[in-house]
Write the structure tokens for this entry.
Amino acid sequence: MSAPPVGARLVKEIRFDAEAIRATALHVGDKNPLHHDDDVAASSRFGELIASGAYTSGLLAGLLSEGFGDEAADGKGQVGVDYKARFIGPVRVDRLMRFEWTVAELEPRRSGTIARLEGRIVDTTTDTVAVSAEMTLFYFG
């Protein structure tokens, strides 16, 4: 089976609650108090807890295996070979965020296909981009 076609999209919405923000930051070793200390976060420029980059970018990358990973269900598989995320704005408590990936380019190779994808996380309340990302996947085949 081949990679998804150029223009194919994945979209998922996720709401971030305070407990998950705290627990995930501490679990991945991010001790920045903006992610787990209500008092420090309240006195910051954000005025509240914000999700860590490890949490948001990890969820964005993981979405690919929920959707475009199915394209490799023929048993040959696919792997991520490059991932870059830019943190543009905060992901706030109780905000519904829209996670999106779009296949931007395909490059056939003798042993498979390289797929270049563009991703982002958008705050549905303000329609502003919080995270933008690029991922390169290699589909064996």
In short: The domain at 9-140 is CATH 3.10.129.10 (Thiol Ester Dehydrase; Chain A). The mean pLDDT is 93.
